[in-house]
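Sequence in, structure out.
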Amino acid sequence: MEHFDVLVVGAGISGIGAAYHLQDQCPDRTYALFEGRANLGGTWDLFRYPGIRSDSDMYTLGFAFKPWTEAKAIADGPSILNYLQETAQEFGIDKHIRFQHRVTAASWDSATSQWTVSYTHGPDATPATATCNFLYMCTGYYNYAQGHRPEFPGEADFTGQILHPQFWPKDLDYAGKTVVVIGSGATAVTLVPSMADTAAHVTMLQRSPTYVVSRPAEDAGAQWLRKWLPGQLAYDVVRFRNIALQRFFYNAAINNPQKTREAMLKMVRDELGPDFDVETHFTPTYDPWTQRVCLVPDADLFKALKAGTASVVTDHIDRFTETGIRLKSGKVLEADIIVTATGLEMQALSGVRVTVDGTEIDFGKCFSYKGMMYSDVPNIASVFGYVNASWTLRADLTSEYVCRLLNHMRRTGTTECRPVNTDPDLKAKPFLDFGAGYVTRAMERMPKQGDRAPWTVPQNYVRDLMSLRYDKVTDGVMSFRKARLAAPAAAAAVPRVPEPADA
């Protein structure tokens, strides 16, 4: 049975970033990345639907330590996956990845300060175990095995093809066919213009509108800076600028929602012209940024709508028919293919069963410590990025804090770090105050945040920067202790490539 100082679960953006920080800040610790799939990349390897791309700019979705150098700031999925593969190879992280290693359970023993991790590996899912001192969950927030897929009346009657974007068939031929995409979120607004290039017609069918904004896919300012500044410096400047702009626009939306709403709708009207019914199809009933705003690079969705290759219908589904969908209004949408872009299914810690000293942990009853650890659960952290900014910004800060914890324990000779809530007046609030359907459906299963620090999840990069990078780890809430017993001997882990000493 192998033993690691740190076991990272997941080899997507979060896991690759975690590995870099461990090598850079904790070079004396052994680690491995267990990845359940056959490839690295996480989201960017799983999703293969037409047009798959990020709705965050790559100067903030990319890593601070690995400049993004391609022209497009709003990048497509294959380009992002290539960037992650380059990063893993450049820093030797790929040597630590164990593919087809799917973690199923983790059991903590307080006497030895050690996790015993159960997993399956290989094409036959052979069961095995490993041990580690710290478990770092970098598996994202949604269920890779299934998306959110409501059942619609009459589905069995439909003679065409029904599919979910999370499981896109490799050989799907939609050229010359009529397509209905159910949904109005980021996936739908990506699929519609991409499929409209070759389909006979694509209809986006939505129950209610979403805020949609356009921006250029290429960042002209970033390209100009690269001509005059060294690569890393130009990247750092653009990254700082984009972080500041993201925060500025988010704050403007929260503090002055009506003015922001008017500006967003004016942008849509300017794109689509006076004859388009923006009030019905692009005017949400909620305020901006109480749900995530959808980005359309280079106005591709608006161009498809103006060209007539795509359309938007705002209505409710009555039932599926043999040839399409009948709506509550009585209108019928004919379709050869129906795509259910109905969202994701969130889950805590990738559904891994976690026990501490024989007691199974219900994470829905835990408080979230700094948005990354859990009340009374030792030596485990997980990455959960921002809903109002790029995921990687918070992932990087979380990894920095994990490394600070590990280094503090090494300096003090302690082996356990456990956030302990001793405040009887701490009030429980939802982990995220965000109105998106995929969020509200899952909040009961997710940990709770409190009404005061360090139990809050502020969704604020500046506040997190101060808390995770600069606040003391010995804050009176994080408890440290030494193991009572020596851990049993375990097989040595694969040797690591030496890295620079911790600063």
